[in-house]
Amino acid sequence: YGSRKEMLRFVKTCGKKRPKFQKDWLKEYKEEHAPYRKYRPAAQLEKDSAAAQVYRLAYTGSIAPDPEQIFLEAGRGTEVPTWLLKLIIYLEQNHSDHHIVLSLQKKSQPLLLSLLNRYFPGKKKGLPSNITLVVPHTASYGKSLALSGYVITDGPLPWYFCKEEGQFFLLYCGHTMYPKTLSNTQISVPDTGLWQHSMFMADCLCFANEENRSIYLKECMIQEICPVPSVVGNFNELTMEPGLFLRDQIRSSLKMD
Predict the structure, then answer these.
(1) Is the Cα dihedral 174, 218, 152, 247 positive or negative?
(2) What is the pTM (predicted TM-score) of this model?
């Protein structure tokens, strides 16, 4: 209870009532007084300020995105799902000359190291030399996002992202059946905006199946208005020929042309 007054109010209202009435009253009381996480635009802008500032400097600079640098992110930098792990293994086995930048929070990095050591038992423990970890919302995150020739994520990118000429952005929507924004709340409204922003920026949208595609486009309110091409199928089944890792050849492999 918030105070002695609220406790006395409960006793007066429910003291002589049946247990079911008391439980229903308490349920309504909790719903009315539950702490509500409000979306605070100013706080979000402050959180992203360092990454956004460096991103703008790198984006407007004279350095073009590196065609041999690949930026990866899952769960907005909080997860190491199967699709991401398999993609890292594939890149290490077939394109080890490329530099991989992986966005991952510090608390999730030990899990990644453990999984990589399991899949590469013969190699020296620790990260392969061509993989760099960056923490979301940091300056190194913003710089890597601006200067990577390839960007692959399973969620929306930050509000300041603006794909530069020469970048290839693949948004993988097949990791979950629904985008992680469904309820009509103060939090979900700007989050839906981030999904829309990233979907229109992408070179390609990847879905697990037609139902998955229909749900994402409907929930993000972009049905029949998003011109970005999409592919449907298991992410592991998309063919990328070894040795051919240029933008046009990937587009051809994904049957986008």
Answers:
(1) positive
(2) 0.71
